[in-house]
Design goal:
The chain is mainly β and 174 residues long. The protein has one domain. Helix content is 9%, strand content 41%. The protein has 1 helix and 11 strands, in the order βαββββββββββ. The strands form 3 sheets. Strands 1, 2, 3, 4, 6 and 11 form a 6-stranded mixed sheet that branches. The chain has a 3-stranded antiparallel sheet with strand order 5-10-7.
């Protein structure tokens, strides 16, 4: 498996934030999370979502994540490639929610994919309505998007050799 994280611009002003996001993504991945099978290559790109008015209509523009501040909305795009000679019957891959960010509910998408979430650092995955965490006082409560630690996509169709699939999610910088 290859994981490549790219930030479109590498200015000095963003180095510490970009490093924190990168280290968070890699550290979360190392916490026992499942990752893509060895035959898949996963490249993750982070971009800043900026809403602009164009001809009186709100439009989202994706910018290099080189100047980020708390509250910014980041869009993570995963490019999943099968570089092998054989098709992968049921491709499955996982992305940790980067540290210093909170997942934005209902934003994980992937054409032809089932999306599940983890609240235990990638040990188990399920649909949002089935996830539970310990709340204050130790009582179990329904998990919310800010409790998610990882996202897993399972493609409903195989991935042919040299084919690419895309997945995306949004997270807000703390």
């Amino acid at each position: 498996m290859i994981i490549v994280i790219t930030f479109p611009s590498r200015t000095t002003a963003c180095k510490w934030r970009c490093r924190a996001l990168l280290l968070g993504l890699l550290a979360a991945s190392a916490w026992g999370a499942q990752t893509a099978p060895p035959e898949l290559q996963v490249t993750t790109t982070a971009e800043l979502a900026q809403v602009q008015m164009i001809n009186g209509h709100a439009a989202v523009r994706l910018l290099a994540a080189d100047h980020v501040v708390p509250g910014d909305l980041l869009i993570y795009t995963l490019k999943v490639r099968n570089p092998g000679r054989d098709p992968v019957a049921t491709p499955q891959f996982v992305a940790p929610i980067p540290v210093h960010t909170n997942y934005v509910a209902d934003t994980a998408v992937g054409p032809g994919a089932e999306v599940q979430y983890s609240v235990d650092f990638g040990e188990t995955f399920d649909k949002p309505q089935n996830l539970r965490v310990r709340g204050e006082g130790g009582a179990m409560r329904a998990a919310t998007a800010v409790d998610y630690t990882h996202i897993r996509w399972t493609l409903k169709h195989g991935l042919k050799p040299n084919s690419v699939a895309y997945a995306r999610f949004r997270a807000r910088l703390n």
